[in-house]
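New to this. Help decode the following:
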Amino acid sequence: MSAPLPWRTAWRIARRDLSARFRGLRLLLVCLFLGVGALAAIGTLTGAIERELKTRGQRILDGDVQVEVWQRSPTAEENAAFARLGRVSSGLRLQAMATHGTLTSPVELKAVDAAWPLVAPLTLSDGRRVGAPPPGTAWLSPDAAARLGLAAGATLTIGEQTLRVGGVIADEPDRLSEGFALGPAVIVPAAFPDTAGLTRPGAMYRSKTRILLPRGGDPVAAIDALKARFPAAGFTYRQRGNAAPGAEQFVTRMGEFLVLVGLAALVIAGIGIGGGVSSYLEARRGGIATLKVLGATGTDIARIYLLQIGVAALVGSLAGLGAGVLVTPLLGRALGTLLPIAPGLTFDPAALGRAALYGLLVALVFAAPALLEARRFPAMALMRARVAPLARRWRDAALPVGLGIAAIAALAMATAAQPKVTAWFLAGSAALLGLLGLLGWAIRKGAARLPR
């Protein structure tokens, strides 16, 4: 039995036979380009948002530490303890109804003191950079202005008081840290809720105090000190490293969900990959037969065409990675008003590597049966197959296909934020592919029994 060709010799033969335009392998290229591109874009965008949430934590929280308590304001002793830690800004958050003429809308009232904001100023639609509104004035979010039909200079009523619209908000730096709201935001002076009768007994409101520590201050140590000083105060703490937990959790879960959707699309595209590879090898039966007549072994055939398909898969995956990186700024521009995304191109090596690995593994799983089928037939059988197709033996492909599927599942589980959800997804995908395979087998059997 002759020794198999060295990989270098196999590559020389594969390179001569491989068209520069990848004729016959374009379906493989397109499937991997789309699938890997989608996974790369999703992973890069998710990573970019998560990094910005961490990087801009102080700006998003408007401080280094936030202390929140329900149904009361901090006591004088508590305020003194806060002030010893750094610069302080306090205010209330509550739901209210705003009225303008016949229009009424629920709003999220954000009452802030003169020290707000501690980190970055508020920007209005007319370009002004401002802080807390003057007495009798409110800053309105675009949604609040649209719902109530208001513009700068108009008036609205909240509770027992009337406010003048001082401007419409264009950029509210600490918006993400406020979390879920039942209505659009209206920013008012700190004293307004009391004068409007919104904090009477029975009213529900939250008091928020933000603390900006001196440069180099440790927010975790500051929180630990406050917990030790006021163990029964009922405070809820947040620090700049976790400035917007709701947004971060949403981005993480949505990113994982979209990755699973993209992986499902890539697996479905794998059916096209398998068909494209089968057609490609079918068109080269004459060349395979010639190589075998000249002494090439089944292993040599597998190496030659594995290299060709591997190069095509690598090119398709790299093109998909490039497209994923290039489309991320466009997605960031579309989501820029909702989530923090740095402008320009963003590279996330982990996300890109994961997307490429998924693509190459899917290509391996769906190309392996056709490759192994081509390597096991003798030259004369390959030539006769033009008239009488040869039966497939799926047992030969069981090992590489099984290893590829196991690698895909292991990669998905290793990178999953919610392993249980990922496990159910993988089980569902396996069941669906099994059902499709069973359906295809039934159709072939039924067609074979039909009269010719």
Notes: The longest helix spans residues 245-283. The mean pLDDT is 84. Residues 59-242 form one domain. Residues 246 and 311 are 43 Å apart (CA to CA).
